[in-house]
Amino acid sequence: MARYGLRTLAVVYLLFLLVLPVILIIWRTFAGGLAPFAEALTSPSALHAFQVTVVVAGWAVVANTVFGIGVSLLLTRHSFPGKRLLNAFIDLPMAVSPVVVGLALILVYGRFAPVGGLLESWGFQVIFSTPGMVIATVFVSMPLVVRALVPVLEELGDEQEQAAHTLGASRLQSFLRITLPGIRWALGYGVVLCLARSLGEYGAVAVVSGRLVDQTQTLTLFVEERFQNFDQPAAFAAATALALVAVLTLLLTKLLRPKD
Amino acid sequence: MTTDTARRPLSPPRTPGGEGRPRPRFSTGTATGLGVAVLYLSLIVLIPLAVVVWRSLDQGPGFFWRAVTTPDAWAALTLTVVASAIVALINLVMGTIIAWVLVRDRFPGKAVVDTIIDLPFALPTIVAGLVLLALYGPESPLGVNLAYTRAGVVLALLFVTLPFVIRTVQPVLLELDADVEQAAASLGASPFQIFRRIILPNLVPAMLSGTALAFTRAIAEFGSTVLISGNLPFKTQVAAVNLFSQIESDNTTGAAAISTVLLAVALAALLLLDLLQRWGNRRG
Amino acid sequence: MAIEVRDVTKSFGTTPVLRDVSVDVESGSLTALLGPSGGGKSTLLRVIAGLERPDIGTVHISGVDATRLSPQRRDVGFVFQHYAAFKHLTVFRNVAFGLEIRKRPKDEIRERVMELLELVHLEKLADRYPSQLSGGQRQRMALARALAVEPKVLLLDEPFGALDAQVRKELRTWLRRLHDEVHVTTVFVTHDQEEAIEVADTIVVLADGEVKQVGSPAEVYDHPVDPFVMRFLGPVTEIGGDLVRPHDIEISASPLDGGTPATIARVVRLGFEVRVEVEVDGQDGREAWVQVTRELADRLGLAPGDTVTLRPTPGARRLALSAV
């Protein structure tokens, strides 16, 4: 009896907290068929927001992938003083509120901040512009690739790399031919997580972008702005599109997740 | 780079228990990589956060205190802490139950349930808020309108923190030895006694870790609460939203002060988490 | 000399692993580094390969100072205890790896790899992945991979350590024969004295990070320099304050000149060999044992309780225990 009780409790909780809300919004979006959905998503503002999102998330994923591979190699294949500290700092972004991230970046890279002012005088605008949004997105998604790679690199060990060295491979050759193929699934997993987080970032980007419609508006900002302006169909359509991306991400990570 | 003792030709052979320290493999490559990583981390994360803390304190502790205790900021901070605590507690109970059901129960569709647990991690927070508003807003098909209420805030926080306790408890539960429970049963323990005396003590570190993670996340949450809370100062405005409006109105010093409080609470929770994990490891 | 190791000292943190080790390995020889685990033999092998750097000392390979060379420039073949198979590459690509790095023409690679796979009897498994091979097959693949680049020296770290007893024995004989065919200078690490004696032509005994003795299998077995080496290389027993091999003891029912009287405690028949356990007078109850043939035991009618006399055979190596 207890078993059925617990099962029912768990399923009902998930149903009302998670499943029904998501299904409801998808249902409402498609209630009028595909045409209104397509129309709402192909408006110039929506297309522009989509484009901004792809650019920002793309750069953030590239930066965090390169950084993620480098740092995980440092953490697993090298020893140096302060390793534990570096390890702890990598996780720091997870604990910081996205709005705090935005404020922090404005205080350093804003027009009236020393660094931001200097960059601005060289004609390089960070805040209220793409670079700032990329940095904000990099900040919030920083740990994901590292955390996906470190356990796999540890598990893999360095014997295969040593074997490659004794066979004449340089560091780069052994990385490209031995290490990279060994971590490719984990890397895919980390990159997908990082991409999903980047596409969906709202708070930090809301602060540093200035929320300029048709300029620095990403899809998540588009959802909020349309909803506040009582354009529910557009808000629901974009939200549904993002939700579908999330579901796709979920399935991909399920596929790529290292089996234990 | 100079710690490479291989380059010291006359270093005497060290004896166990001597004063010698471990010889790190600290090559030029390591140094370069470390330098680049630390620079990247500093430019994006460390320096900006340090500036926030510095900015909140550079006009003296009195100013910091006044900025944090303005009526609207204080109300937002207390609401955030109280709501996060409630959310953490609900997660502690519900997360453990769901993890239990996912590991020990068997029913059709369990794999699907297990997969969708991670949806809140994948779903953009603004979408999460919108989705909840669709079911629990003014146009609720259930007739439940939580928009612009504190209950709505709690609901949004419950949504985004759902996976933490489940995903920390699940692996521990999976690794629990069935032998131990059978041994307890053979010694005459009832199912409840087995849970209370054998299973629960093993789960407690993971349950508390997950709860601490959920609490940290709830404290910091912004996106999901924006739409459903309606941003009403003194009523439904959480700290991150209050912070956002202070930034919008260019009150950066006040914003920095609230940010510092949020950072401090998050760090305290993470420190606690680290202690919990060590405690768990020692027992495991 | 193919390898000259001079005065090498190496510590991990505060733990010294090699202390002032010097070893010469002759060209074309098959040398065993033998010793108990933790004795430093694997570290010495890794120092030769360049996978570890000595704190002090030098390594010459074929007359060239290799102390500061990275492993990739040393021209050594290294076979790891757990094979270090490239899991994502087929057997063929594993063996071809070193040649591909050296950018040899495709045809040449193909020819050389197939030749090697035949040598190690894996030609039919060229397209398999390492996970589809048995332990012994993986080990042979690792060997072919190391040989493919025609190394100046071949280094094997506990090559048979992870295999079960039966496969181990087969591979031992096979390695010996392979070496006779290929003639590449080979050094292998083992903690199994039987393996070292059977396969190697030179044995270097390493313990506590020091070289204890170097010599042919017969030399180190028959003329160990100290009780440690004697114990490590084969069975020993104690009579009259001396350490002696139990098969180097004469046993007689009647008194012998210079013999030690003893009482038989047990007679254990192990097929052809019979193990006679005795209590030696004046040895404070420390038992000794003598290894005799079944034929001799039957002829003397040895039985528990009998009084006998024991004496080391004239050619026996004896080490006085009191001297240590």
UniProtKB/TrEMBL annotation, chain A:
Offer an example of a GO molecular function term for this protein: ABC-type sulfate transporter activity
Q: Which Pfam families match?
A: BPD_transp_1
Task: Could you list this entry's UniProt keywords, alphabetically sorted.
Answer: Membrane, Sulfate transport, Transmembrane, Transmembrane helix, Transport
Q: Where in the cell is it found?
A: Membrane
Record flagged with keyword Transport: yes
**Chain ranges passing through the membrane:** 12-30, 50-76, 88-110, 122-146, 186-213, 233-252
Tell me the SUPFAM superfamilies matching this sequence: MetI-like
Q: According to Swiss-Prot or TrEMBL, what is its membrane topology?
A: Multi-pass membrane protein
GO cellular component terms, semicolon-separated: plasma membrane
Boundaries of every ABC transmembrane type-1 domain copy: 50-257
Summary of the function given for this chain in its UniProt record: Part of the ABC transporter complex CysAWTP (TC 3.A.1.6.1) involved in sulfate/thiosulfate import. Probably responsible for the translocation of the substrate across the membrane.
Q: Subunit composition?
A: The complex is composed of two ATP-binding proteins (CysA), two transmembrane proteins (CysT and CysW) and a solute-binding protein (CysP).
Q: What is this protein called?
A: Sulfate ABC transporter permease subunit
Source organism per entry reads: Microbispora oryzae
From TrEMBL, chain B:
Q: Which is one Pfam family of this protein?
A: BPD_transp_1
Gene3D superfamilies under this entry?
MetI-like (1.10.3720.10)
Tell whether Cell membrane is among the UniProt keywords: no
Membrane-topology annotation of the record? Multi-pass membrane protein
Q: Per UniProt, which keywords does this protein have?
A: Membrane, Sulfate transport, Transmembrane, Transmembrane helix, Transport
One GO CC term of this entry?
A: plasma membrane
Where does this protein chiefly localize?
membrane
Q: Record keywords: Membrane included?
A: yes
Q: Name one GO molecular function term.
A: ABC-type sulfate transporter activity
Tell me the superkingdom of the source: Bacteria
Question: CDD domains annotated for this entry?
Answer: TM_PBP2
Residue ranges, annotated region (Disordered) = 1-26
The ABC transmembrane type-1 domain covers: 77-273
Q: Where are the transmembrane segments?
A: 31-54, 74-103, 115-136, 148-166, 199-220, 254-276
The free-text function statement in the UniProt record for this protein reads: Part of the ABC transporter complex (TC 3.A.1.6.1) involved in sulfate/thiosulfate import. Part of the ABC transporter complex CysAWTP (TC 3.A.1.6.1) involved in sulfate/thiosulfate import. Probably responsible for the translocation of the substrate across the membrane.
What family does the entry list? Answer: Belongs to the binding-protein-dependent transport system permease family. CysTW subfamily.
Database matches in PANTHER family: SULFATE TRANSPORT SYSTEM PERMEASE PROTEIN, SULFATE TRANSPORT SYSTEM PERMEASE PROTEIN CYST
What name goes with this protein? Sulfate transport system permease protein CysT
TrEMBL record, chain C:
- One term under GO cellular component: ATP-binding cassette (ABC) transporter complex
- One Pfam family name is TOBE_3
Enzyme Commission no: 7.6.2.9
Give the source's domain of life in one word: Bacteria
Domain ABC transporter: start-end pairs = 3-233
Query: Where is coiled-coil annotated?
Result: none
Specify the signal sequence span.
none
Print the keywords alphabetically: ATP-binding, Cell membrane, Membrane, Nucleotide-binding, Sulfate transport, Translocase, Transport
TM ranges:
none
User: SUPFAM superfamilies recorded for this chain?
Assistant: MOP-like, P-loop containing nucleoside triphosphate hydrolases
GO MF entry, a single one: ABC-type quaternary ammonium compound transporting activity
| InterPro entries per record | AAA+_ATPase (IPR003593), ABC_SmlMolc_Importer (IPR050093), ABC_transporter-like_ATP-bd (IPR003439), ABC_transporter-like_CS (IPR017871), Mo/tungstate-bd_C_term_dom (IPR008995), P-loop_NTPase (IPR027417), Sulph_transpt1 (IPR005666), TOBE-like (IPR024765)
Output this protein's name.
Answer: ABC-type quaternary amine transporter
- Which organism is the protein's source? Microbispora oryzae
**Lineage of producing organism:** Bacteria, Bacillati, Actinomycetota, Actinomycetes, Streptosporangiales
